[in-house]
Design goal:
The chain has a single domain, classed as YVTN repeat-like/Quinoprotein amine dehydrogenase (Methylamine Dehydrogenase, Chain H, 7 Propeller), CATH 2.130.10.10. Helix content is about 5%, strand content about 45%. It is built from one helix and 34 strands. A hairpin with a 4-residue loop joins β11 and β12.
């Protein structure tokens, strides 16, 4: 072996030079996210698959049943449960094969909300017309027990981090029903929120539930310990969907009627910065597991907008998906 320390080779010197130039120019590329976003295209009866490394759709859209509205991914990322509003059933996608498996699961009439339990064993579906929640055994892909009655016209649905409570937005009642998942029934009185509650999400510590009130242009904050609304936050017009960052610090709210996203600081429940302009009629938000990006489905422009959560700036161009995208969800599994 030569005793000479030697100078870096030409390839190494060029690499160092390129890195130096990149840093000086302030355009360091973001690290790869290595995950996938699934998007329910309501008017195309299919689900688009987006690679978050490239922010491009991959493969063909996956056909489901009529009017896919919302979807939920099991924690292991292996299954996507898609609530088909117009056909009142749930399709199940195997993420490895990118195909549906088995026949659709019949649920209540016009499912509008869906959530998977933290342990991946159950999926809960809020059915708008039948005023109930269907429980699905995720392993057998069969319904488990009788539907659970809730309030009038349930829309959004969320689950506590420990899986013990399911929260259901009763759209016509301006209230939220609470389900005890062990007893499989509602408990206590519905919690009053704003007008037309739709999307909702729990914080990672389970202490709060954020509810988007479409008619009021507000977000209600429920204290899960007292089961009361403790804050009402004005956002944009027609808030529909929202998501909490993994660290629980921020809430991103899609304002359908104003074409924007509002950002809430959960420590103060105050709005952060100006509304972020996205596409036409944004309806749902999904956030990557590292909290670095928020993906917003724009129903009116058939696209997704991507937000850098560090700066709240839009990243790149809109991602074209299917017709009428609504529900959206992220998994760490690569497409």
């Amino acid at each position: 072996m030569s005793g000479r320390l030697g100078r870096p080779g030409r390839r190494a010197r060029l690499a160092v030079l390129a890195l130096t130039v990149t840093v000086l120019c302030g355009v360091v590329a973001a690290p790869a996210l290595g995950g996938t976003v699934y998007v329910a295209n309501d008017l195309d009866d299919d689900v688009s698959v987006v690679d978050t490394d490239t922010n491009e759709t991959v493969g063909n859209a996956i056909g489901v049943r009529r009017g896919p509205r919302v979807l939920a991914i099991t924690p292991n990322g292996r299954r996507v449960f898609v609530a088909n509003r117009a056909s009142s059933n749930v399709s199940v996608i195997d993420t490895e094969s990118a195909e549906t498996i088995g026949g659709p699961i019949e649920v209540g009439r016009q499912p509008r909300g869906i959530v998977a339990s933290p342990n991946g064993k159950r999926v809960y579906v809020a059915n708008r017309i039948s005023d109930d929640v269907t429980v699905i055994n995720a392993r057998t892909r069969r319904t488990a027990g009788d539907p659970i009655e809730v309030g009038s016209r349930p829309h959004g649905i969320a689950i506590s981090p420990n899986g013990r409570r399911v929260y259901v937005a009763d759209n016509d009642d301006g209230a939220v029903s609470v389900i005890n998942t062990r007893r499989k029934r509602t408990v206590g009185q519905p919690i009053e929120v704003g007008g037309g509650p739709e999307g909702m999400a729990t914080t990672p510590d389970g202490a709060s539930v954020y509810v988007a009130n479409f008619f009021d242009g507000t977000v209600s904050v429920i204290d899960t310990a007292t089961k009361e609304t403790v804050e009402t936050i004005a956002v944009g017009s027609g808030p529909t969907g929202l998501a909490v960052t993994p660290d629980g610090a921020r809430v991103y709210v899609a304002n359908e009627s104003s074409g924007s996203v509002s950002v809430i600081d959960t420590a103060t429940n105050a709005i952060v910065g100006a509304p972020i302009g996205v596409g036409t009629t944004p309806v749902s938000v999904a956030i990557t597991s590292d909290g670095a990006r928020a993906y917003v489905s724009n129903r009116g422009s058939d696209s997704l907008s991507v937000i850098d959560t560090a700066t709240d700036a839009i990243v790149g161009s809109p991602i074209g998906v299917g017709d009428g995208p609504r529900g959206i969800a992220f998994t760490d599994r690569e497409p």
